Amino acid sequence: MSLNKKLLKKALIIGGAVAALAVGIAIAALAGRASPSGGIFMAEPEYAVGYTGLQLYDDAHFTWAQAMVQVTNTGRGNLLLAPGVFYFTDSQSGAAVFRRDEIQAYPPILAPGETGYYYFHEIVFDLNAASDFELEYEIDVARPDSRGPQVTAAFGEITETEHGIGIAGEISNTTNRALSSVSTAVVLYDHDDTPLAIVRSTIQDDIEPGETRAFVVGLWGLPPGVNAEKIERYIGKVTGVEVLENA
Predict the structure, then answer these.
(1) pLDDT tens digits for 184-200?
(2) How many structural domains compose the chain?
(3) Is residue 138 part of a domain?
(4) Is 239 buried (19+), middle (13-18) or exposed (0-12) by CB count in 10 A?
(5) What is the pTM of this model?
(6) How confident is the model at residue 160 (pLDDT cuts 50, 70, 90)?
(7) 147 falls within a domain
(8) What is the bridge-based pairing of β-strands 133-142 and 5-8?
């Protein structure tokens, strides 16, 4: 039995008074669903799983694993990609030989039509890179309460930095709150539009409303064969914002 199960959450709003019932039916007509009691069933999260990939490789006396699962929001509302679970299974026996919980998605909230990735890239122990494994996963998709504070990010071209190649950009705090940190992620694609890797960066600096901060996403520590020549394009996004306390 496959471990690939998608856990969906559904919200139920119960109508009360006659006026509320009428409003509920009207809204339900627009949304396409209503309960027999007059309440409104919010539409279940709609999404599609696309590309999935797993590779193990040896580098600097360690075995590394890179795994990703692509999720696209195919519905009309925002989606929350809660932390998931990755399993590596033996291709012959189907037995799970590795499990990692709390796999993060980038970005964690998807607008309609937006694509995100559950991503894992770490050193793994007691696994042979020459062995044949398959990726199984559990993902949890739900409706978010809100998108949280919104900031804008501008990403430049791939360029040389003092540490190697990287992508320079700027973060603008377009909120009315001071921020203590902003996290970004960049998805790299090859000439066939296949995702190659995800690189991340966090600005640990206070950013006042209306202020802008420069940052660099370093393109180092990539899997073998992923270099500037192989990268055809990339998509950069803000993946997390922390509001400065007492601000």
Answers:
(1) 999 999 999 999 999 99
(2) 3
(3) yes
(4) buried
(5) 0.78
(6) confident
(7) no
(8) parallel
